[in-house]
Amino acid sequence: MAQESDHAEVNRQSLQRDIWLPLLYTVKEKKTENRGIVTLTLAPSAEEAIEPMEPGQFNMLYAFGIGEIPISISSLWNLQSTLVHTIQDVGAVSKAFCDLSTGDQVGVRGPYGTRWPLNKAKNKDVIILAGGVGMVPLRPLIERILNDRSRYGKLNVLFGARSPENIIFHQDIISWQADPTLNFQITVDHAYSNWRGHVGVVTYLIEEANFDPENTIAFICGPEIMMRYAVHACLDANVPTDHIFLSIERNMKCATGFCGHCQYGPFFVCKDGAVFSYPQVKIYLNIAEL
Amino acid sequence: MAKQHAFRTDTQGLESLFALLSDQGYAQMGPVVRDGAIMLGEINSFDELAQGYTDEQAKGHYRIKPIPTRGLFQYAVGPQSFKQYLHPPRRKLWSTHGSQEKFTIEEGNEPEKMVFWGVRSCDLEAIKILDRIFLEGAFVNKWYQQAREQLVIIAASCPVPSANCFCTSTNTGPKPESDFDIAIHEIMDHDCCYYILETGSHKGEKLIQKLRIQKVSEEELDSLERMIEKAASSMEKRFEPAEAADLLKKTLEHKHWDEVGSRCLSCANCTMVCPTCFCTSTEDITEITGEHSERWLRWDSCFNGDFSYIHGGKIRDSTRSRYRQWMTHKLSYWYEQFGTSGCVGCGRCITWCPVGIDIIEELEALAR
């Protein structure tokens, strides 16, 4: 490289933002979903905000002095620059987020990752299969479909939770259940006698759902074991392999393919996923410890 | 090599190059003798460069030995690679001050302008691989980019590859072919040596113009060619990178992973010495007052237990699965990710494995 051009190069790139630097956001609202799960609404603390997000994408959220974690966008209902993130307390950093109060500050960098390919679902029937907090990255997708309902065929939202106490998004569920344009079903693995709904794994709900298999797109997110069975239930129902999409979870530190933690066969889940088509990940889904 | 880009000089010529770069404010990194090995360090005077040594390498074995000549490059690669300067083992990303109610963020330090002395062709190829990772994808590693743009690379051809070297298989040596500013070819002439300097960039040409150099003769260029041929033919280890990439995709459940997993200590040495292993983790270091915190980037390894941890446990709990991850990534999935193999044939992972695991032999076992 010619020495003369070096300074110009440095000037050009100094305008670029370091991928590691978060933007500051302020917690505007905090809603407790249930024990150990909160939904935070974040707004930029200053003028600068991250780029608009799409369903399926995630941000790296930083809790002051504690650390950073990848968290999916959980609602895109509000199209302003606010971000809605639902976080389950499973470790030091996620606990710090659950303990935040309105007015506190956090760091945000993103958006990262692939999106649910909603364009492929145009004029098709849709199955959305969620297991537990796997509903989080799927909720913005449901919102998008309901917002432009005539663009899609029959909509089935099938939600499995461990127990009634683990159900999240109660307000959404009430409106989904009341909505005649979608078939919403919920099941729990374990229930007490006061539960009047389905009991059992979520994949059984596929058998009762109403869709034209050849003309159906399935979007799946949940624990990996649930997704494996969910994929097979879709295939058994004759949904074509390339109509099935799922969101894979791995350890992520950088979200840009630089840290190597989220590798999954040839993929970096952070940038090649987290949303994959089933044919992309088919051979890796059944290999233990890959 | 085009003759108009090649010049002859002696040790004094190299010394003046060193002085010239010092005057221009560069930090100069190069091979030095430390801890019984050829290590890398910042050199403040030319005579700190390792001189008069060769090395002996085998599986899990490394020794340096003095030699009678004053040669500067008569050894193969040591444990460290120049990766440590472009992608440091520890680097502060940023620091923050305040509280969870309100805090500010301050960027970490920028890289200094550096010269790398004696970059072997394998390590030069490794830098080109790091370029693909950090500069040519969807995201740019800004710190790396700054360090790279200011960098002066003085490459060196490799006259005596070690028993673990296999750069002829990976097509990455033993002679640096491009992407350097200046290449040094050290030609031993009885007990004496001279240097053929080759320029590879405009930056390199400008530096060379300021040195006392001579034209290079046809005989001298012939000597260089003979030296390279001899070095290349001395390497006995062989593998075919494209075949290895295919093989590994078909052997993810091979029983040999259990066998190699039973020998591997999961110590991460291979990943630490590899010039292309780039994995990192982040660390938050918070003062006890809770008012000040720093985020650091540090090298990590797919052999570490926490590497694949997500809530609930580790994805790769067994050593077998970690070794498989390292090897399939390095030799196979690297192609999908970066369009090339992740191996440059330097042999470090074999030399520095405490139990002498040899990646090429493991490959052969998987093929059986």
Can you tell me about this structure?
The complex is a heterodimer of chains A (290) and B (368). Chain A is α/β, with parallel strands linked by helices. Chain A has eight helices and 15 strands. In chain A, strands 10-9-8-7-11-12-15 form a seven-stranded mixed beta sheet, with helices on both faces. Chain B has 368 residues and is α+β, with helices and mostly antiparallel strands. Helix content of chain B is 33%, strand content 25%. Chain B has helices spanning 11-23, 83-86, 121-134, 142-149, 167-170, 202-209, 218-233, 241-250, 256-263, 269-273, 319-338, 348-351, 359-367; strands at 6-9, 27-34, 37-42, 53-58, 61-66, 90-98, 103-107, 114-119, 152-156, 182-189, 192-199, 214-215, 280-286, 292-299, 309-310, 313-314. In chain B, the strands form four sheets. Chain B has an eight-stranded mixed beta sheet, with helices on both faces. In chain B, strands 7-6-14-13 form a four-stranded antiparallel beta sheet, with no helix packed on it. Chain B has a two-stranded antiparallel ribbon with strand order 4-5. In chain B, helix 8 packs across helix 11 (319-338) and helix 9 (256-263) crosses helix 11 (319-338). The chains are: A alpha/beta (290), B alpha+beta (368). At the A-B interface, helix 1 of A face strand 6, strand 7, helix 4, helix 6 and strand 13 of B.
Strand order, largest beta sheet of chain A: 10-9-8-7-11-12-15
The helix/strand class of chain A is: alpha/beta
Enumerate how many helices of chain A there are, as a single number. Answer: 8
The largest β sheet of chain A comes out as: 7 strands, mixed
Using only C-alpha atoms, the radius of gyration of chain B works out to 22 Å
The largest sheet of chain B has its strands arranged as: 3-2-8-9-10-11-1-12
Shape of chain B: globular
Oligomer: heterodimer
- Largest interface, Cβ cutoff 8 Å: A-B, 50 and 61 residues
Order of helices and strands of chain B: EHEEEEHEEEHHEHEEHEHHHHEEEEHHH
CATH class of the largest domain in chain A: Alpha Beta
**Straight-line distance between termini of chain A:** 41 Å
The figure for the number of domains of chain A is 2
| Termini separation of chain B | 41 Å
CATH topology title of the largest domain in chain A:
Rossmann fold
List low-pLDDT spans of chain B: none
| Amount of beta strand of chain B | 25-35%
Morphology call of chain A: globular
> Can you tell me the CATH architecture of the largest domain in chain A?
3-Layer(aba) Sandwich
Biggest β-sheet of chain B, characterized?
A: 8 strands, mixed
